[in-house]
User: Fold PEGA domain-containing protein from Sorangium cellulosum.
Amino acid sequence: MEAEAALESAWELSPTFDVAYNLGNTKYQMKKHREAAQHLSYALRNWPLIKAAARLKPIAEQRLAESRSQVGAVTVTVSAAGAEVLVDGKAMGKAPLEGEIFVEPGEHQVEARLEAYVPANQTVRVAKGGTAEVTLAMAPVQREAQEVASGANAEAGASTPGARAGAPVAEPSPAAPVEPVPPPPGRSWVPVIALGVASAVGLGVGIGTTVASNNANSEARAQQGKIFGAGGGCLASPSFVGQCTELHRAAESAGRLGDVALGSYIASGALATAALTYALWPTRSAEKATAVLVLPEPRGDGISFVMVSAW
Assistant:
């Protein structure tokens, strides 16, 4: 139940295909076939063309078919675009709807509402596993008001003594101005600056540790030259133990510093590449913002996760 509530909250905030897929699977496992069919259908209509997500698509299709066989479906066509469609008083979206509306088998009331239009409704009966088609024709309220007003004026003119024919009719008040939609926000350069600074720091660390590694190598070579110049060695010369210890310490220090320098150069390059990619990548609107998606993949020995990103 906690997972269901968390996914429903995520769906309210971000109705994306991955949330619909996870929520549909949860409803399917809970035997809530109508809700499972609604969410799985949405996920399949908006499935991305990514190979990593393609492996999960057959699972969604199979579970949608199983849930679909347990409930009914209604396809709704409304003459007025933008009208709100309701089934049994519950809002289902605005016309034109993308896909079917899934309902429990039985009788249902389908309605369409839109400002300045007369509401339209129709009662329909849907069988289990079946589909019913509903067409709602909506008439503007203004047309009916004009007809009523014309009839009232004609009646008043015929019954009122001295009434003038062709009296001026008051014109409707002008519509309120529509505020322009603000442009989408521009790209933020804070990540570029942060990545650039981090890259510069990594490069500085790499240069510093490279210099320190070279100094340690020079010290080790100088120590080795002293031992060999005195006719000794570090394998069978006990009298040179102290000097050999210093030689080994200098060599190990040079190796460690060299590894740190290499890692710093790699990190600096990766950060610089990330900053350049972010700066040059085309901007996208908020409705199509890039997101990294994590999808569960059921397997015979447990469950794994697939990370998907659409660019």
User: Anything to note?
Assistant: Strands lie at 72-78, 84-87, 90-94, 101-103, 106-113, 120-126, 131-136, 292-299, 302-309. Residues 160-167, 285-292 have pLDDT under 50 and may be disordered.
